[in-house]
Amino acid sequence: MRIFQTVKPHLLLLTTILMLTACNRISPVQHHYNTNVGCIVANDFYAIYFSAYVEPEEKIDHSKKINESLFKSHCKNIPHTGNVYFTADLVDEDLREMPISLRLVEQEPAGKNKETAADYEDTRIISEVMPKVYPQGTIETRAVIDKTGHYALYLIIGDEESAFADDILKIRFDVGMDTEATPVWRYVAKVAELFMTFAFPVFIVLLIMLPMLPKLRFKLLSKMLFGMQNRGN
Predict the structure, then answer these.
(1) Of 18, 32, 47, 136, whose CB is crowded by the most CB atoms within 10 A?
(2) What gap in Å lies between CA 218 and CA 224, rounded to an integer?
(3) Which residue, among 172, 119, 169, has the nearest Cα to 149 in the 3D structure?
(4) Which CATH architecture has domain 35-181?
(5) d(C-alpha 84, C-alpha 144), whole Å
(6) Residue 26 and residue 99: Cα distance in Å, rounded?
(7) 36, 37, 40, 45 alpha-carbon torsion, rounded to 10°
(8) Is 53:35 a contact under the CB 8 Å cutoff?
(9) How would you classify residue 56: left for phi > 0, otherwise alpha for psi between -120 and 50, otherwise beta?
């Protein structure tokens, strides 16, 4: 009974910490990339699967059947300029009943030191699609991207003039950029995210359990010795 009373408060504290860690989520988020379904883009209210396909640089004979294997799915990095096809699958059923407009924009880093800037600002509108309801749950559009750089595709849910921040899903991606030149702060942020998700809870568990292990081991050993003495008598 004493052991249970000692462990119970620690388990309650551990459960609380794990719940807080799980709820530590930045909105919007973009993760879980898969070549088949793309990547998921979500905020606190909506979620979609996003994919981008760029037309191969080699010339395609459109009079013949197109080899779909040439069109590889991309998410955050599109390898080169050209005709880019965007697909968004609406995860939430509610989105299939709402008008959604699209806006593709070119961006550039904001701030004085643009090489390490974390924020981007819109500089040019590439294309726009007027609000439309997509009852089948699939949004498809195409745009010609004629220069390498930073871009973003906005999915605006409902009326743009009255839309809140959570009514706009912003999908950032790069075209023709060297992925190895990713700013250091992105790697630091990713490592910190992984640490908070996995390593930090494990560390807390060890921190809580280590002081209890000698006491538990001593109690179990005492019970074993006491049982052996009783059997001997």
Answers:
(1) 47
(2) 10
(3) 172
(4) Sandwich (2.60)
(5) 6
(6) 26
(7) -170
(8) no
(9) beta
d(CA 231, CA 198): 46
pLDDT tens for each residue of 126-170 = 999 999 999 999 999 999 999 999 999 999 999 888 888 889 999
- Sorted by where each begins, the domain ranges of the chain are 2-19+190-232, 35-181
**What is the model's pTM?**
0.59
Query: What pLDDT, on a 0 to 100 scale, did the predictor assign at position 73?
Result: 86
CA 39 to CA 73: how far, in whole Å? 10
